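Entry 14. Two folds queued back to back today. First construct below, sequence then structure tokens.
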Amino acid sequence: MATLVEPEIRNRPRRKHCYTMWETLFDIHTKYRPIKPIGRATYGMVCSSINMDTNEKVAIKKISNVFDDCGDALRTLREMKLLRHVGMRM
């Protein structure tokens, strides 16, 4: 389950909330509400969420330390392009 956390940042955008799941901090738009964690992998963690505007279920992936390794950054970019392309076809 997700726990709402509000860090003490003064210049924080109003349209975002912070949630923790499995000791991972997610900083997401207020229109999304996390439901539960789905899994953890090499590059990060995935949680299921709901879009409060459309009631559509979505998955949000948090990728940790994406720029620490050039190869990992390229793989992540490829995955994002692929997911964007697949999403347009649905």
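Second construct, same run, same settings:
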Amino acid sequence: MIPASDFDMGCSDLDTNCELDEKPSTHQQLNSNFYIGVYEVTNGEYSKFTQETKYKTEAEILKSPDTWKHCHFIPYNENSPVICITWNDAKAFTNWLSVKENAEYRLPTEIEWEYSARGRNRSRYYWGDSFDESYVWFKKNSMDHPHPVGEKPPNAYGLHDILGNVWEWCENDYIEKIPKNWNPKSSTSGEKSLRGGSWFDTELQLRVSSREFAPPNTRENHYGFRVIRTNK
């Protein structure tokens, strides 16, 4: 469980690698506890969803050769994070899980994601300011593909691969400048935020404050997701 708290979100003033959309840091409030997936959603879990619902991803509807079952050159592994799925495909999974478990599941907002990744820690990475590749899958050690979840050490909340492996879709629409006490919004059309960096990226994109965004129908071989469960 991630406890309700307040924290400073965004890039530390001491970090010389800040991008414009990471600064200035802003004070944020999390008013409720929530639960977040220890791991990114895997191919095996997504397969169970599609088998039960007969859901077709956007790539499958378009008859693309690159789907979550065969994404570009990436080898399929049941325990690796599902990739080549859009934000819409990820939302379909959380909607199914909500009904199945009679609970509220969704994607994390950027506020929820960043606090889950760092807590009140202000360092570049959840383990400190100096990069250490033993904690993450990234460009130099990934062998050009994502890896089975849980192979790298967890952060303080017990979350694996919160940095690296795959970028994680967030619930909210992307905005460039994050205000104090932000109340993130989500629509079906706005560009969506992603967090965490991936196997495809350098250590600069794996800083906790690093941000990515894409239209909700985008699919990439380094985009995936994890889910949260709220107490509502």
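Quick look at the second one. The radius of gyration is 17 Å. The longest strand covers residues 167-173.
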